[in-house]
């Protein structure tokens, strides 16, 4: 989860003297500022006790029937994605107003602000932040949301232990030999060539929606825990939702992230392995245990049978 990136951007490769006094010069690619150093260069809060990401142990996730479905507002809008930007440590897409989530046992509605991605070095060298039962996925997409009552004031949100809600989606290689799939991800990645250098951004044309990008994920099945931002200052202000299903993207498109984007200009290193390492375990909850899937199937079959019967009686 890459949050205060804009404020910190100029600092990463520059000497600290050139940085605003409250900004932290952090990075992924240099031993002097990578995540191993964050607890010492950002003691408030990267050395905390509620840090993200974590390895989720599926068998240890406690059932919680309060973890109901979300409502996603304007995730179907093909004009909500406004701008795509190389922000030195990630690719970030910012949203227009009116995009948001509620439900899912969140205490109130949250406004969705942006998404960004974490990756490794191509599809064969995975770089998700969370892992599940030790498995690291090729990439992870984070949608960043802020409590609607803060009206976009991030200072207030990061001072609240649930001020932010992050939605994490794993990205996995599509099976078979497909290329350029799905079409929504072909469109998204087509912008990468325009933002190869840090600080570059381009407007996004209307066309793809968040729903299009989150294809194939059952958004009622997720893990929930209280954690932090995964980049300095690692504020412990995040309600994490990590979805169980992955988004399937063809290998050629996954590989574009680690082969196109630079951490600075075109002579600087490629942006690879942009993820924080696993932090100490935290309590995780999820929907009811897997036996429910059997009963759901039976229930759906029963409904189907019922609708067939009803359908017949109505058509008669
Ligand atoms: C984090 O570092 C600060 C400053 O060194 C220290 O005061 C604090 O106790 C540390 N917190 C933890 C959880 O180690
Ligand atoms: C579910 O929500 C109710 C009402 O807010 C609360 O009393 C209860 O403790 C919650 N259950 C769990 C497992 O968190
Ligand atoms: C998006 O979903 C809402 C609620 O289901 C619906 O009213 C609206 O027409 C949809 N918009 C588009 C662009 O599909
Ligand atoms: C990343 O992958 C490329 C292509 O496979 C390889 O040449 C390069 O050495 C890798 N970089 C690192 C840091 O592993
Ligand atoms: C955000 O909230 C803080 C703390 O209440 C306040 O000091 C600051 O002025 C607010 N910022 C904006 C842009 O409203
Ligand atoms: C993928 O391509 C390889 C080599 O062209 C071929 O042997 C294999 O059958 C293809 N697999 C699928 C699932 O199409
Ligand atoms: C991206 O770059 C190409 C080639 O330079 C250019 O034709 C296109 O207009 C650019 N797209 C955007 C959205 O800036
Ligand atoms: C490119 O960035 C490097 C630092 O990564 C810097 O040393 C070099 O001067 C820059 N080159 C140009 C042309 O800006
Ligand atoms: Zn992130």
Give an account of the 3D structure.
This protein has 316 residues and is an alpha+beta fold. The protein is built from eight helices and 15 strands. The longest helix has 25 residues, at 291-315. It is globular, with a radius of gyration of 20 Å. Bound molecules: 2-acetamido-2-deoxy-beta-D-glucopyranose (NAG) (8 copies) and zinc ion (ZN). One 2-acetamido-2-deoxy-beta-D-glucopyranose is lined by residues 153, 155-156.
Please specify the SSE layout and strand pairing.
Elements: H1 5-8, H2 38-41, H3 43-46, E1 55-56, E2 62-63, E3 70-73, E4 81-86, E5 91-95, E6 100-103, E7 110-119, E8 131-132, E9 135-136, E10 139-147, H4 154-158, E11 164-173, H5 183-189, E12 201-203, H6 210-213, E13 222-227, E14 238-249, H7 251-260, E15 285-286, H8 291-315
Parallel strand pairs: 1-8, 2-15, 11-14
Antiparallel strand pairs: 3-6, 4-5, 4-12, 5-7, 6-7, 7-10, 8-9, 10-11, 13-14, 13-15
Bound molecules: 2-acetamido-2-deoxy-beta-D-glucopyranose (8 copies) and zinc ion (ZN).
H/E element string? HHHEEEEEEEEEEHEHEHEEHEH
Helical stretch tally? 8
Radius of gyration: 20 Å
Structure class: alpha+beta
Mean pLDDT level = 88
Cα shape: globular
**Hetero groups bound?**
2-acetamido-2-deoxy-beta-D-glucopyranose, zinc ion
Binned strand content: 25-35%
Number of strands: 15
CA-to-CA gap between the ends? Answer: 57 Å
């Amino acid at each position: 989860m890459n949050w205060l990136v804009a404020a910190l951007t100029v600092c990463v490769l520059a000497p600290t003297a050139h940085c605003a006094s409250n900004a932290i010069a952090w990075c992924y690619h240099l031993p002097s500022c990578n995540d191993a150093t964050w607890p010492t260069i950002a003691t408030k809060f990267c050395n905390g006790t509620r840090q993200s990401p974590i390895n989720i142990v599926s068998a240890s996730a406690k059932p919680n029937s309060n973890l109901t479905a979300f409502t996603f507002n304007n995730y179907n809008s093909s004009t909500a994605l406004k701008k795509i930007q190389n922000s030195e440590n990630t690719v970030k897409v910012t949203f227009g107003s009116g995009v948001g989530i509620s439900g899912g046992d969140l205490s109130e509605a949250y406004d969705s602000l942006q998404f960004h991605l974490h990756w490794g070095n191509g599809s064969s060298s995975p770089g998700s932040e969370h892992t599940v039962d030790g498995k690291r996925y090729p990439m992870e997409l984070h949608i960043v949301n802020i409590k609607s009552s803060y009206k976009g004031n991030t200072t207030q949100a990061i001072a609240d232990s649930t001020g932010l809600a992050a939605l994490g989606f794993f990205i996995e290689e599509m099976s078979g030999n497909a290329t350029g799939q799905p079409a929504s991800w072909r469109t998204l990645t087509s912008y990468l060539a325009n933002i190869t250098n840090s600080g570059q951004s381009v407007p996004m044309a209307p066309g793809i929606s968040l729903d299009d990008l989150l294809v194939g994920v059952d958004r009622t099945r997720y893990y929930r825990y209280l954690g932090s931002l995964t980049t300095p200052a690692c504020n412990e202000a995040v309600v994490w939702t990590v979805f169980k299903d992955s988004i399937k993207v063809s290998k050629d498109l996954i590989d574009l992230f680690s082969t196109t984007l630079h951490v600075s200009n075109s002579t600087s290193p490629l942006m690879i392995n942009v993820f924080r390492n696993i932090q100490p375990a935290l309590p995780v909850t999820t929907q009811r245990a897997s036996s429910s899937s059997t009963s759901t199937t039976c229930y759906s079959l029963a409904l189907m049978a019922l609708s067939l019967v009803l359908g017949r009686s109505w058509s008669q």
